[in-house]
Write a structure and sequence with these properties.
Blueprint: H1 14-23, H2 25-43, E1 52-56, H3 57-64, H4 68-80, E2 85-89, E3 92-96, H5 98-102, H6 106-122, H7 125-155, H8 162-173, H9 180-190, H10 196-206, H11 214-220
Antiparallel strand pairs: 1-3, 2-3
Length: 229
Amino acid sequence: MYWLKHYCNFSRSAAMSEVREKFGAAGYGAVWLILERIAEDFAVTPQKTEPDLCISEKEWRHSCGLSAKKLHDLLEILQNHGVISTEKRENRIRIKSAILAQLLDEWTKRTRKKSESCAENSRPKQNREDKSIKDKNRTEGYSRIREELTPVLERHGLFSEPERARRIIRHMEQKKVRSHGAYLAKILQADSAFDPEEETTNSQTNKGQGPVAVGDILRREGFSKRPEL
């Protein structure tokens, strides 16, 4: 899901009318900030069958710019009107939004439907069962990894940079280490500005470049002529 359909009268729906009455235009914006976060995660997590996202309450608040009380009041209104459903786990909140499944862009709908149809028709029953188990284990593994990474990211204030935090999470999910949280903590202690995107860029820039000759270094520094004796 890379873009969303948008009902022209959504702002005048019963749910949004109540949101705007209680929170003003800022509340309406907060709703879309929440829905966009869920939709973005759904786009990069193909094994998901419905749009939902489970992150800390602190990150939800940061995403929509609301205090804890206002966030809970907003979620209660949306849940009462069936826009979302919520599930709280300790300091984390899972928000599901069935409405986003109806707002999928046509390209994503066709791609997901075609992919699921081809996979089911070309795979024997046992293989389908094996894939189901593998997907479940992978999802649980990613969930466990994210739970390990969350407190480390929070301690280093990285949820104030959500894009960078997501890049780090995706990068860490590819690592085969005993403890992803401890591994990330060591990286951030050594380099608080760690960013997988910059690491990849630097790696690609330097790829294929051999050792730099001393003469080249001297010429770049302005010592192009041989000094007189």
